[in-house]
Amino acid sequence: MSESIYHWRKPIGAWHIQQCLPIAPATAGQNLTRWQRIWQGLQQSFRLMVGVHDYQTYLKHMREHHPTIAPMDERAFHRHCLDARFPSQAGKLGKCPC
């Protein structure tokens, strides 16, 4: 084993994480409890793990970074995400959804 494992000490400083920020912040005027924020973060994390992207986060990104481009509607957005994960066009390699 490495010698650094035996001589490990807890770091000292103000850089320790006090509270994690939510992945997608709550909308303005929506006061959520800590447990509700945790639950929303867990839901979003599990959705991202199985490949379901968040449309509201996509809209926020498009407003902030690409204001001149019209965003896709929700149906087209989910179709785009599915095609990116499981390509259906001939000649494209992808994962089998089964």
Q: Brief description of this entry?
A:
This is CstA-like transporter-associated (Seleno)protein. 44% of the residues lie in helices and 0% in strands. The protein is mainly alpha-helical.
Question: How would you explain this protein's 3D organization?
Answer:
The protein is 44% helix and 0% strand. It has helices spanning 3-6, 34-49, 55-65, 74-85. With 98 residues, the chain is an all-alpha fold. The model has no long low-confidence stretch (mean pLDDT 75). This is CstA-like transporter-associated (Seleno)protein. It comes from Pantoea leporis. It holds the Pfam family Sel_put.
Quantity of strands, as a count = 0
Q: Which oligomerization state do the chains in this entry correspond to?
A: single chain
Radius of gyration, taken over Cα atoms and rounded to an integer in Å: 20 Å
Low-confidence stretches: none
What distance separates the N and C termini? 42 Å
Summed over residues and divided by their number, the pLDDT gives a mean of: 75
Helix/strand-derived category reads mainly alpha
Spell out the blueprint of helices and strands:
Layout: H1 3-6, H2 34-49, H3 55-65, H4 74-85
